[in-house]
Amino acid sequence: MAEPTENAVAQAHWASRRDSSIDVHADVTPNTFEALAFEQQLAGNWSGTLDAVTKWLDIEPFSVRPAVMGSFVAVAHRGDGKAGEEFAKRGLIANKGDAMLHNNLAVSLAIQGKLAEASAELETVKFRHGAAEEAVNLATRGLIQMRAGAVHEGSHLYGQAIELALKLKNPILWCRAAAFFLHECARFDKSEIEEMAGKVMRVYDRLNPTVKLSANDIPALIDRAKRTSSVSEMLEKLGSFRNDFLAFPIDDAGQPDK
User: Fold this and answer.
1) Rounded distance between C-alpha atoms, residue 28 and residue 207, angstroms
2) How does pLDDT run across 221-243, given as a tens digit for each residue?
């Protein structure tokens, strides 16, 4: 492509995932930040992805796609709520009412602790019952509840999302909901994280290789979950510090040792 449009690049990327002979690397399709964004995402370079998406959004400020991609990668791959919020809000300027952008904004706000704003944002999302959108909505509501400390209610909502994904026979949706739930559980306790991660990855590993590339946020989420400091770990460290702190040396007469 000598002077490809952004839409042409998107079509080329779609085709390249089905035909490896089609080369859509950024050096072959210059000045196309959409191409670079997908290239960096498939390569697992999240910083590079967000840089390219930012430039793509600058070029196409009225397009919903760069804002959706940027907000999703920021949150799911990086756990960066602030960046996710910025991408989503930029996209909503021209695409108010887009369910995915509103959902991504709610997630971005929730992981920053802005729970009231996140709940209010989610109320604006309209979805079809019994469809993938409902599963996403349930999972986001579960996230908000768990961040608020309502672990039982949050787990129940995540469970509903996971069950709906099973009903829909959607393995990617199931893996994403389960991986997000695993990440939230890891913030409280990681004693069963390896077992939970193993179950998710067994489903993920059976996906078509091309599909796996487009869903590489799932192993990234699991990796972040494993590196997250849990409440139980913090309490254990606090207990150790407390014991050391209270172990002031005294002699047999109850007087401080000199």
Assistant:
1) 29
2) 999 999 988 766 555 555 555 55
Domain 1-112 has CATH 1.25.40.10: yes
Give the contacts of 170 (CB within 8 A, at least 6 positions apart): 132, 135
Q: Taking the model in full, what pTM does it have?
A: 0.79
Q: Cβ(35)–Cβ(26) under 8 Å?
A: yes
What residues contact residue 222 under an 8 Å CB cut-off, 6+ apart?
179, 182, 183, 197, 200, 201
Domain 127-245 CATH assignment equals 1.25.40: yes
Report residues of the chain scoring pLDDT below 70.
1-31, 231-258
Instruction: Name the residue ranges covered by the structural domains of the chain.
Output: 1-112, 127-245
Contact 173, 150 (CB under 8 A): no
